[in-house]
């Protein structure tokens, strides 16, 4: 608690911590949400099914 | 009437004419079964309570700041180059990264552009061809600014597929859709395509930089 409490002693440090934390939080949040999304949709995403379509041949591409 | 009612109320409360401050902790009211609030009271110091409040306020501020930042970012990103501007864009390619005898594919105005760093043998091969035998007669020198750099739009002139590099019977490009063969200068040699591969407008801004567009 003493470390956190030391951030409250000066308003400048308090506000700077909040703004800096917002940047850090956003990166963390993006990664976390992306990870969750990809885990939730496992098997349906393009990089999961890519091999199936690219190795399966281009029989649907008959126009030049 | 009102005097009687007042007296009855006073005796009912057990005040007996004396004035007291009402307090839930007063021992004089011990016969009143009041609830015990002590488990709801915290024993924190003022400083600790204040730190918790500041932490909560700060956390809310952090979340709000992150939300505000992404809102502003979405507005700013809407000011970035739009699709129609990008469609007219030029592409700059650093040639130093392309070794001799290698193809590089870059995207320019939504089209693939082939850049080949030709070897001296390939340049000789392209110049040795008798152009009168070609379907779309064109000298190799008319197709390049510098002989070692061949720059072409990578779209088959037949129906618009993207040919495969370093393939085909003439050592150049081969279109897998209907089997058009292009030579090392991008000229049509065999197959259904009517024209040579198109040459985009390009320039060498310095020895190391190619500007397509």
From TrEMBL, chain A:
The keyword Cell wall biogenesis/degradation does not apply. It holds the Pfam family UCR_UQCRX_QCR9. One of its GO terms (cellular component) is mitochondrial inner membrane. The chain crosses the membrane at residues 12-33. GO terms for biological process: mitochondrial electron transport, ubiquinol to cytochrome c. It is found in: Mitochondrion inner membrane. It is a single-pass membrane protein. Keywords: Electron transport, Membrane, Mitochondrion, Mitochondrion inner membrane, Respiratory chain, Transmembrane, Transmembrane helix, Transport. PANTHER family: CYTOCHROME B-C1 COMPLEX SUBUNIT 9, UBIQUINOL-CYTOCHROME C REDUCTASE COMPLEX, SUBUNIT X. Belongs to the UQCR10/QCR9 family. Component of the ubiquinol-cytochrome c oxidoreductase, a multisubunit transmembrane complex that is part of the mitochondrial electron transport chain which drives oxidative phosphorylation. The complex plays an important role in the uptake of multiple carbon sources present in different host niches. Component of the ubiquinol-cytochrome c oxidoreductase (cytochrome b-c1 complex, complex III, CIII), a multisubunit enzyme composed of 3 respiratory subunits cytochrome b, cytochrome c1 and Rieske protein, 2 core protein subunits, and additional low-molecular weight protein subunits. This is Complex III subunit 9. It comes from [Candida] railenensis.
TrEMBL record, chain B:
Its EC number is 7.1.1.8. Binds 1 [2Fe-2S] cluster per subunit. Residues 116-211 form the Rieske domain. This is Cytochrome b-c1 complex subunit Rieske, mitochondrial. It catalyses: a quinol + 2 Fe(III)-[cytochrome c](out) = a quinone + 2 Fe(II)-[cytochrome c](out) + 2 H(+)(out). PROSITE patterns: RIESKE (PS51296). It is an enzyme of class 7 (translocase). Signal peptide: none annotated. The keyword Nucleotidyltransferase does not apply. The Rieske protein is a high potential 2Fe-2S protein. It is a single-pass membrane protein. Keywords: 2Fe-2S, Disulfide bond, Electron transport, Iron, Iron-sulfur, Membrane, Metal-binding, Mitochondrion, Mitochondrion inner membrane, Respiratory chain, Transit peptide, Translocase, Transmembrane, Transmembrane helix, Transport. It comes from the Eukaryota. PANTHER family: CYTOCHROME B-C1 COMPLEX SUBUNIT RIESKE, MITOCHONDRIAL (PTHR10134). It is found in: Mitochondrion inner membrane. GO terms for molecular function: 2 iron, 2 sulfur cluster binding; metal ion binding; quinol-cytochrome-c reductase activity. Its cofactor is [2Fe-2S] cluster. Belongs to the Rieske iron-sulfur protein family. Gene3D superfamilies: Rieske [2Fe-2S] iron-sulphur domain, Ubiquinol cytochrome reductase, transmembrane domain. GO terms for cellular component: mitochondrial inner membrane.
């Amino acid at each position: 608690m003493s470390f956190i409490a030391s951030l409250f002693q000066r308003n400048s440090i308090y506000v700077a911590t909040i703004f800096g934390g917002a940047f850090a939080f956003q990166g963390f949040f993006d990664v976390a949400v992306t990870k969750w999304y990809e885990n939730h949709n496992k098997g349906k995403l393009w990089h999961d099914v890519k091999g199936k379509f690219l190795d399966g041949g281009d029989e649907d591409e008959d126009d030049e | 009437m009102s005097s009687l009612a007042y007296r009855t109320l006073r005796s009912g409360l057990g005040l007996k004419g004396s004035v007291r401050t009402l307090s839930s902790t007063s021992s004089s009211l011990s016969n009143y079964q009041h609830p015990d609030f002590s488990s709801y009271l915290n024993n924190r110091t003022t400083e600790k309570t204040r730190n918790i409040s500041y932490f909560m306020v700060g956390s809310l501020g952090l979340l709000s700041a992150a939300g505000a930042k992404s809102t502003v970012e979405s507005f700013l990103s809407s000011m970035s180059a739009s699709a129609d501007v990008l469609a007219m864009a030029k592409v700059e390619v650093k040639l130093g990264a392309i070794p001799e005898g290698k193809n590089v594919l870059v995207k320019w105005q939504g089209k693939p552009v082939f850049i080949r760093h030709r070897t001296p043998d390939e340049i000789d091969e392209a110049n040795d061809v008798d152009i009168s035998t070609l379907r779309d007669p064109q000298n190799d020198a008319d197709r390049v600014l510098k002989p070692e750099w061949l720059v072409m739009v990578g779209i088959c002139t037949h129906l618009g597929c993207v040919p495969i590099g370093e393939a085909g019977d003439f050592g150049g490009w081969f279109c897998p859709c209907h089997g058009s063969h292009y030579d090392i200068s991008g000229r049509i040699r065999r197959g259904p395509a009517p024209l040579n591969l198109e040459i985009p407008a390009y320039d060498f801004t310095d020895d190391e930089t190619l500007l397509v567009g």
